[in-house]
UniProtKB/TrEMBL annotation:
Protein's cellular compartments: Cell membrane
Domain ABC transporter: 12-251, 277-477
GO cellular component: ATP-binding cassette (ABC) transporter complex
PROSITE patterns per the UniProt record, alphabetical: ABC_TRANSPORTER_1 (PS00211), ABC_TRANSPORTER_2 (PS50893)
Protein name per the record: ABC transporter ATP-binding protein
InterPro entries tied to this protein: AAA+_ATPase (IPR003593), ABC_transporter-like_ATP-bd (IPR003439), ABC_transporter-like_CS (IPR017871), ABC_transpr_CbiO/EcfA_su (IPR015856), ECF_ABC_transporter_ATP-bd (IPR050095), P-loop_NTPase (IPR027417)
UniProt entry keywords in alphabetical sequence: ATP-binding, Cell membrane, Membrane, Nucleotide-binding, Repeat, Translocase, Transport
Length: 477
């Protein structure tokens, strides 16, 4: 059993809470009365921007220490007033996994990152070794120990972040969208880990849009809307609400199995096209290691093609070759019969990366949307559809993960290129935004664009894709 470093009562009690960020004109979070006993698994759900992440940042001390805000009301962890506690003090009681796990890494090597929390807490080498063995038993990460973190896929980074938080040994675990970029096998692994931690008495609080994997774990669902906690449901009551009620609340599906079966059937029926983007003799490598070789693959314009497979299997690596960021001199990549150089591929292809913050360069959202597009006018309807109209004068780096995702989706749509590659574009999106993304992809299809959708979001894939390519099948395509 992973021992707790905290010896205090870890019941969370909140009364008459208001959190208002600096320069904001209204509260980002309001909770009248909330108690979370030790050992519960609580899911925070609701539309994007409804206050879920703000509650997590309050509980781990990032508000107000790193995110300046006015906090009124009472927030206690046992007898500890969280408004007076530092992030360092709270690290003994609370561990966190952020929405973008790459932002919380301190080291470049996986093993160093895993043991860092224990070293920071002054544990002995013997204690660290015991805890590392326990965590490795849960996650099976030993083969990753010597790997550089920057070479891992987004999903693998999420697992490392969760394992590192578990290494911390804190009795409370806060998770912000922990499975957004994970393949089904990895989601099952996370389920097993969370179930084990819950059995050991850990308090687990999860802000999540993808609810399907939590149906057997959650004790309660806290529903947020426009910054307020508006409902507190026992799990049984929440899961027995009608399908119409779920959709009216803006929540994602409770059961992903029907979508999973549909995707598997589509993948089994995949056939290469005769025109469009042709890929021949392409060796896809990562960090000098050959992942697979594509003998021949062709995808015609006017369709949405899903690319699925395990984390680290080479989906994003393939995208980097197609956009011209990686080069295999022996390969032949053509568009409508014309060979593409790496530069021409870059000019013809728009790529929305998984780590969208790496693509943000301008000083405002407005400027980011038209960067490199002389005389390009903003599409007000598109901006409104993705809820960016109130963010146009904000700095992109200061946006939430979901807001950054929406920004880059709109920027990609405005770029008007022939080939568009989206890498996990629904990460951080609620139901309404996911449906808007689906409409945007349908619009691109109507405009005869070729859309390659790299995703683990089974609901989105089943909704929009004309074809599905399983990464495992590419060796024989």
């Amino acid at each position: 059993m992973l021992s707790n470093l905290s010896s205090i009562d870890t019941t969370i009690k909140i009364n008459n809470l208001q959190v208002t960020y600096a320069a904001a004109d209204k509260p980002a979070l309001q909770i009248e009365d909330l108690t979370i006993p030790a050992g519960q698994c609580v899911v925070l759900c609701g539309p994007s921007g409804s206050g879920k992440s703000s509650l997590l940042k309050l509980l781990n001390g990032l508000i107000p220490e790193y995110y300046p805000a006015q906090v009124t009301g009472q927030v206690f962890l046992g007898q500890l007033d969280l408004r007076q506690a530092s992030v360092e003090d709270l690290s003994y009681h609370v561990a966190s996994v952020f929405q973008n796990p790459a932002t919380q890494f301190f080291h470049t090597q996986v093993l160093h990152e895993l043991v860092f929390p224990c070293e920071n807490q002054g544990l002995s080498a013997e204690e660290i070794a015991v805890r590392l063995e326990e965590v490795n038993h849960l996650f099976q990460l030993e083969t990753f120990y010597d790997k550089p973190i920057f070479q891992l896929s987004g999903g693998q980074k999420q697992l490392i972040a969760l394992a590192t938080a578990t290494m911390q040994g804190s009795p409370i675990l806060l998770l912000d969208e922990p499975t957004a970029n994970l393949y089904q096998e990895a989601v099952h692994k996370v389920q097993g880990v969370l179930r084990k931690l819950k059995q050991e008495g850990k308090t687990i609080i999860i802000a999540e849009h993808l609810l399907a994997y939590l149906t057997d774990l959650a004790d309660r669902y806290l529903y947020f809307q426009e910054g307020q906690l508006v409902a507190d449901y026992p799990a049984g009551d929440f899961l027995h609400r009608t399908e119409k009620c779920r959709q009216d609340m803006g929540l994602r599906c409770y059961d992903a199995e029907p979508y999973r079966r549909a995707i598997a059937e589509q993948a089994s029926q995949f056939k290469s096209d005769q025109e469009g983007l042709s890929i021949g003799n392409l060796s896809v490598s990562q960090a000098g290691q050959l992942l697979y070789k594509i003998e021949q693959l062709c995808l015609k314009p006017g369709q949405v093609v899903g690319l699925v497979g395990p984390n680290g299997s080479g989906k994003t690596s393939l995208a980097r070759y197609l956009v011209g960021l990686e080069v295999d001199k022996a390969s032949q990549i053509t568009w409508q019969g014309k060979a593409l150089s790496p530069r021409q591929s870059l000019e013809k292809t728009s790529f929305v990366m998984q780590d969208v913050h790496l693509q943000l360069f301008a000083e405002t959202v407005r400027r980011e949307l038209t960067l490199g597009q002389k005389g390009k006018q903003l599409d007000k309807a598109l901006i409104s559809r993705f809820r960016l109209e109130d963010l146009l004068d904000r700095h992109p780096v200061g946006l939430s993960g979901g807001e950054q995702q929406r920004l880059m989706i709109v920027a990609s749509l405005l770029a008007d290129k022939d080939i568009l590659i989206f890498d996990e574009p629904s990460s951080g999106l609620d139901l309404a935004q996911m449906k808007e993304l689906a409409k945007a992809l349908a619009f691109l299809k109507k405009e005869k664009k070729l859309v390659l959708l790299i995703s683990h979001d089974e609901e989105l894939l089943a909704m929009v894709c004309d074809k599905i390519i399983a990464i495992e099948s590419l060796k024989t395509v």
